[in-house]
Amino acid sequence: MEQQKHHYSLVVKKDCPTCALIEPVIKQLSDTFNNSLTIYVQDDPSFPESVADKIDDSSLEFSYKQNIEIVPTLIRSSDGLDEQARIFGWDKNQWQKFTGIENLGANLVDFKPGCGSKTQDPGMTEILTLRFDTDLLQARKIELAESEDIMEACFERGWSDGLPLVPPTPLRVTRMLSSTDRSANEIVGSVPPDNRPCTIEKIAINAVMAGCKPDYLQVVIAALRAALKDEFCMHGLLCTTYFSTPVMIVNGPITKQIGMNSGVNALGQGNRANATIGRALQLIVRNVGGGIPGGIDRATLGNPGKYTFCFCEDESDAEWPSLSMDRGYTREDSVVNLFAGSGVQPFVDQQSRQPESLAKNLANSLRSVANTRSFGMADAIIVISPEHRRVLRECGWTKPNLKQALYDELKTPGADIIRGKDGIAEGMPEKFKDIMLNKFRNDGLHIVGAGGKAGMFSAIISGWLASGEKGSQMVSQQIN
Q1: What are the extents of the domains in the chain?
Q2: Which CATH superfamily is domain 2-121 in?
Q3: Of 1, 54, 110, 315, which one's alpha carbon is 20 to 30 angstroms from that of 462?
Q4: What is the C-alpha end-to-end distance of the chain, expressed in Å?
């Protein structure tokens, strides 16, 4: 017979009405094909009772390796057991043609859809991947003593930033990796200061410890790629005694997809995506690169942003270009921007109703970035609130108008800010006394929209003193 040239594999489960319906069909197939049919049962190996020879697939090994999504599934293979075709559910005409048995299931209904395979149960994909894909995870496994507290073990081994971590169990790491089609052993780059290679798996481990959801992983990967760009100078940022740390601003559709916060309390606590994505980057630098406070990290004071400093931009105003658009991307691109920044300096202006007044007042506050007598050194980000943007918009001012006004207001004669002027030792070197100085270099001032809709409060994030071409520049990385 033609069917004897093939081998058939049938996957069923007792807890499936369609599988129960076709029990007579299973018996007929068994009688017809004999040794050319193998039956795999996902739940109860006694099913179907009318057939003697069955294989217990309650471990789901066969179902997982054959990518079974629906039961019943009937697979036809060649003599060498290479799959030729498969069908699933119950369609009488289809099954008769597929098997070559004209009267197969003649007394049954013509059609009934199948049920979900047990491999598709919630959380099962990652469990089975971990169980049967033994080469997926390559990181060293830590064995804990029976009496050892898993949370305390993370602290004792030096993995923590000082806050509790989510233990990176193999299952949690596998679930994190399920959100990307990248190979777990793909090397993204070498992380300073120790320049150790960092794989996707190691990124996933630290994302788990930070408390990330799997949906956040692609943002964390992009953030690390940005941090490893030469122009960001991550190694120098780690070593400095200054306050600065990576500040992450995310743009594009991804921010809505993963629920980031650009509104009320955008720079504060309370949003999981904001908090954990920024923290994940910090943990990678610590645990993979060796950037440990008191070791290579020699910050005199540091700032709370060294736990995490991540937020997204409010892009609800179509007339206001986003930070990533300023940097050459489109509004449809999802982008991570990294800035070597310090703490948040408040800017309060509740009286200005004209852009000129707002710009003059904001310029006065910007003078204090790093030091009122430090010019052309530290970059800065202005996080401008919706109400301050409203003042600009109602008078026809754009972001470029504001930036130009700020540059103009901040131009200062060098003689006014040289060392020793007015009895203050700090200041610019004597050689600048006859020069008109700019507070910021040409690409050193960035404007980002964020914040709640009530309150005429904006903010300044000052940069590292080593900003610029010889230090750290803002970098951007598209999220794939």
Answers
A1: 2-121, 151-478
A2: Glutaredoxin (3.40.30.10)
A3: 315
A4: 52
